[in-house]
């Protein structure tokens, strides 16, 4: 046999979690044709000496739903070894949609996922109405990597109920029947599953709760039932258990989650798992319920992150500590260089710091109430603010925080934060690990990652572009947890398995996720010893001049999708083999 290409001398991690082996891989017609000696000729030979060879990674939790319609490259996910992404999480998306609701869905995504509305308005092609139409439209453009899409509850509700699709409007029987038919139609067209979002944190750009945030148990179970008779599909859930409201509502909310999952008739389900400071033990309650459901025969999983769920703050970002100061509000729309020059004036600084911050959240504002809470408690919260540095350190002790630095320098936390924001000509980023960092270490993250029902997720690739840069999760898991952390490491073979076979099995994908003969040639060649993340940086490359955070990475010698090379020495190639994955 003459191979299209061979990968030689690599250390293969096949995705099944077994010990790595030195072997060659022969690829023919986009599939793995042989593993072993691969003695046949090849049109190209790639030497993987000193590198590990893995299946392409599967990212279960992204939000490229808008970007997919205009962006062929799908950065930053493609740069981090990801060869298959799943979009449409958290109940949001852009289909189905009536022409009259285009702006409504843009405002929803702008608020929930922090994607610039101007970029969405200019970039979205809107050449669809139904969900199958949307699938056809996004599949018509070539992309670097493969993508599957969930159908989200919010656009379904808006499509069926129009103006009545507010958070507090209960769906009628006719509404529910129409929504169920829409979900069923999407699933039969090849959608990966159905997603819901029940969280007070998610708001539209107008400050409203998402359309489905308070949907009834009756509505949710009916829509999950659209998957009950099918042979494929997963259910994805976001729920913060009403933490910002009075009383402990965990039990009532989890009852709704359980009813929703059971209505899927055995379909795999997953829920976001993280530790929140305001309820630091809820994550253990979720795991306890997870174990109970699995003991009762329900395939219930938790989506976990390999580090804190953190946001970046800066003068270029969506949020920062002085954004509520009246003097800053007066100059916030000026170009960065002008703002920095004004802020460096001692009199302006003195006036700004003496002011009382205004309330940012409320009617007509997409700013979540938690932002006002954080600013009001800035002296305390600054103890969780950190500089990452050029070689980012995400697991730092409290005594390295900017709050500790302020105390050591004898200044207020606000003054220290003000001065820090002006560093690097106003481009300094302050890292704030909101979730998963209550104890200022990753011991609880380790417990989440090593739970038998854990799935790596929550990267939010394509979303929160002005505050978060977590599409680098796969690279971080492989470098920090498998190599750099001085205790509690995760075996490399297990990390690879989590990023590949575990996700494929959860989704029901039988053609990828493992290095096996006959599988798709979705393959990474990684110089594991040299795998490094750089400091995130803000770039303006979205439509209408929109900006987003990207995080440079080095160590990816090659990434292949369906046998075509999309990454060569950390750079995106011209190849565009990525297609829509239709689930059946």
Helix content: 25-40%
Mean pLDDT: 94
Could you tell me the strand content as a percent range? Answer: 15-25%
Main sheet attributes: strand count, strand direction, barrel closure: 9 strands, mixed
What distance separates the N and C termini? 32 Å
The total beta strand count reads 24
- In DSSP terms (H or I, runs of 4 or more residues), the helix count works out at 20
Q: By helix and strand content, what is the structural category?
A: alpha/beta
Shape: globular
Q: What are the segments in which pLDDT stays under 50 over at least 5 consecutive residues?
A: none
Instruction: Give me the Rg, rounded.
Output: 24 Å
Pfam families: Amidohydro_3
Domain Amidohydrolase: 44-354, 441-566
InterPro entries: Amidohydro_3 (IPR013108), Metal-dep_hydrolase_composite (IPR011059), Metal_Hydrolase (IPR032466), Metallo-dep_Hydrolases_sf (IPR050378)
Protein name: Amidohydrolase family protein
Detail the topology: elements first, then pairings.
Elements (H helix, E strand, L loop, with lengths): L4 E8 L8 E8 L2 E6 L8 E3 L4 E4 L1 E3 L22 E6 L14 H12 L3 H7 L7 H9 L6 E4 L1 E2 H9 L11 H16 L4 E6 L18 H8 L9 E6 L10 H14 L5 E4 L9 H14 L4 E5 L4 E5 L12 H6 L4 H8 L2 H9 L14 H8 L1 H4 L20 H8 L3 H9 L1 H4 L3 E6 L7 H7 L4 E3 L16 H12 L7 H8 L1 H7 L15 E4 L5 E2 L3 E3 L8 E3 L2 E2 L1 E6 L2 E5 L2 E2 L12
Parallel strand pairs: 1-4, 1-5, 6-7, 7-8, 9-10, 10-11, 11-12, 12-13, 13-16
Antiparallel strand pairs: 1-2, 2-3, 5-17, 14-15, 17-22, 18-21, 19-20, 22-23, 23-24
Helix pairs in contact: 4-5, 5-6, 6-7, 14-15, 18-19
